Amino acid sequence: MTISMYEASVPVFSARLKALSNVLSAAEQNAVDRKIDPQVFLTSRLAPDMFALTRQVQIATDHAKGAPSRLAGREVPKYEDNEVSFADLQARIAKTTDHLATFSAAELEGSDDRVIELRLGGREVSMPGLQYLLHAAMPNFYFHVTTAYDILRHNGVPLGKSTFLGNR
């Protein structure tokens, strides 16, 4: 049995974004319960040289919308990166999930060999679609989703693995 480029991307991004949405909902509720200004969570980071929670979510959604768009040969939607609240981040995740729902398996068929050109780490790179998905888009997406979770967990939000995995 083989897995299609669509199956390896769109449903995975969608499921992980739903779980990220649940993580953010739990954090927002935890801020209310503990009487913490939500900005404390939204601007928290794990280390001084790392991005804050808000930026982690923005970058995760950028990879989720960008990968299937590039693989399908579509223009990648541009977002303003102006989110300042949990509601804004939830709206961004919903917009990204809605974008993912516009893709079909047929549209990504054959994209494993499509040459993907983009800037990574300040340099222009070119690679086949499968290499891009497995070695650039997915690892970056998971890094930022995981870091968002870790920031909140580090700040005392009672999250568990089942929330991260989307099992709650």
UniProtKB/TrEMBL annotation:
<dbReference type="InterPro" id="IPR034660">
    <property type="entry name" value="DinB/YfiT-like"/>
</dbReference>
<dbReference type="Pfam" id="PF09351">
    <property type="entry name" value="DUF1993"/>
</dbReference>
<dbReference type="InterPro" id="IPR018531">
    <property type="entry name" value="DUF1993"/>
</dbReference>
<protein>
    <submittedName>
        <fullName>DUF1993 family protein</fullName>
    </submittedName>
</protein>
